[in-house]
Amino acid sequence: MKRSSLIKPVLGGVYPMISHGKGIFLYDQTGKDYLDASSGAVTANIGHGVQKINEAMLKQASEVSYVYRSQFTSEAAEQLADKIASLTKGDLQYSFFVNSGSEATETALKIAIQYWQEQNKPQKQKIISRWMSYHGITLGALSMSGHPIRRERFSTLLESYPTISPPYYYRCPYNVDDYTYGQMCANELETAIRRIGADQIAAFIAEPIIGAAGAAIVPPDGYWERLKQICVEHDILFIADEVMTGFGRTGKILASKHWGVEPDIVTFGKGMSGGYTPIAATVMTDKVMEPIMKGSKLIIGGHTLSANPLSCAVSLAVLNYIEKHNLADRAAETGAYLIKQLQARQERFSFIGDVRGKGLLIGIEFVQNQQTKEPLPKRIDATNEIIKLGMQHGIIVYPAAAGLDGVTGAAIIIAPPLTISLGECDELLSRLDQVFYAFRAKLA
Ligand code: PLP
């Protein structure tokens, strides 16, 4: 085989050569089709090969693709910021554009610290997060992330930010109902603030629904609201990382809206451009921007390609598409159908421990025993085995960490494009069944 100069995720791994994509399907160069049940990395939210997006891309490219944001603004960037402000419907009015989710959360961290500096509180620097979380791969973002495997190698370089428990009710160690457990987990934030001192803390960051670090852990009602309340009471900023959940994925434009909460800062990425181009955003409320506007008027955090017109035009076309086709509502409907069908499979497949999620962000956690919730033995490497079987059977699923330590559990995320029809959901389920039968045969 010809040597490849391209570094792949697993060195020496074999990856199909992509040919093209259409709707929820991807095709490799041998002609094999794959149902994209994960939207890539939970990103291709409007599906593949949408002509309207290609047209917007071509139009912008034929005018101008790149200008430096310190030298020019553009219609595309202005309109995209306005579109985000109108879609999020509230005080989240100011967008700062970057190129990846990691940059968006790292920018949020820096803006939170700056917000306090502008008010003569420079000692407010710490960020509290949860020990099951993923906010990105760059050092600042990773410092806030509770993802043991991704942190391990760089632990000495990371800030030792404080963490609190995730609302992982499936593995709740106490005999309490979900609401009570949610409150207990949220109240850990207050305990941490009292222990460290609010005068040292800039912000709390969390994903409304935990993605890669927990396979779609949806918090109990009351939890997200309580976190916001604690942040307000103790005067620290509340950052919602909606890189995975944003723009319709969970059945609402913002997942935070499921609980009527407006964060001070929100980060977007992934579905913001549906994967058609790299772009992400850190979005702030008036409250956050006011001291900065009155103070230094400057956010030090841009990148060379921040707010480039090409990416902004593409993202704008994607957000218009999501709005026009009501994809958030559609995701709520198809997601509820898929979750119900997947839960029904727990009877057939004893290794399905839990099916959870909201909208089209769905997690499946695998276990050895449904009653005791004992994880499958590590040697089975269930997550990777199921992904591999998925590739063989023409269905793409996404890995997620699970288990109380984020390592011993096995889980996948099912997150097809929000455009998926009910008929295509049945096709997804039928391919997944083939994978599960093959996995069961391996376990036997
Ligand atoms: N935040 C969340 C919630 C994510 O799920 C991810 C990526 O999976 C990131 C941040 C980092 O985004 P990126 O991979 O675009 O840097």
From TrEMBL:
GO terms for molecular function: pyridoxal phosphate binding; transaminase activity. InterPro entries: Aminotrans_3, Aminotrans_3_PPA_site, PyrdxlP-dep_Trfase, PyrdxlP-dep_Trfase_major, PyrdxlP-dep_Trfase_small. The keyword DNA-binding does not apply. CDD domains: OAT_like. Keywords: Aminotransferase, Pyridoxal phosphate, Transferase. It holds the Pfam family Aminotran_3. PROSITE patterns: AA_TRANSFER_CLASS_3. PANTHER family: AMINOTRANSFERASE, AMINOTRANSFERASE CLASS-III. Belongs to the class-III pyridoxal-phosphate-dependent aminotransferase family. This is Aspartate aminotransferase family protein.
